[in-house]
Amino acid sequence: MSDDRLALAVAELVDAIVAAVQAEAATTADTPDRLLSVDEAAAALGVARSTTYHEIQAGRLHSLKIGKRRMISTTTLRDYIEAAGSAARPAVTRSPVPSPEVAAPRASAGSGAR
């Protein structure tokens, strides 16, 4: 395959990939949110159910009450995860490792008084 034909094939492939990604993005943007129960949201976050309720009560995780059920939209959950990931975290500082002291030579087992 000549260089020109290879370049043309690569350009066509790139155009096809870009079109597919744009089509997927348009489909995803039109998809309505799914509502998750507190148990489902807790499982998605990898935390306990009580922790999820605590985050709701603290106002950090928004929810809807539908009848007696508390529901959390997937967009709200995604926003919560992004906010938690971008929150300022304290820098981990490590104290310098002290240089090892020179150990005094030990007496060998065969020498010395008994």
General form: elongated
Q: What is the ordering of alpha helices and beta strands?
A: HEHHEEH
What's the rounded overall pLDDT mean?
Answer: 79
Count every helix, treating DSSP H or I runs of 4 or more residues as helices.
4
How would you describe the oligomerization state of the chains in this entry? single chain
* Order of the strands making up the biggest sheet: 1-3-2
The class by helix and strand makeup works out as mainly alpha
The percentage of residues in β strands lies in 5-15%
Specify the biggest β-sheet. 3 strands, antiparallel
Considering DSSP H and I runs of 4 or more, what fraction of the residues is helical? 40-55%
* Low-confidence parts: none
For the record, the CATH architecture of the largest domain stands as: Orthogonal Bundle
CATH topology of the largest domain: Multidrug-efflux Transporter Regulator, Chain: A, Domain 2
The total number of structural domains is: 2
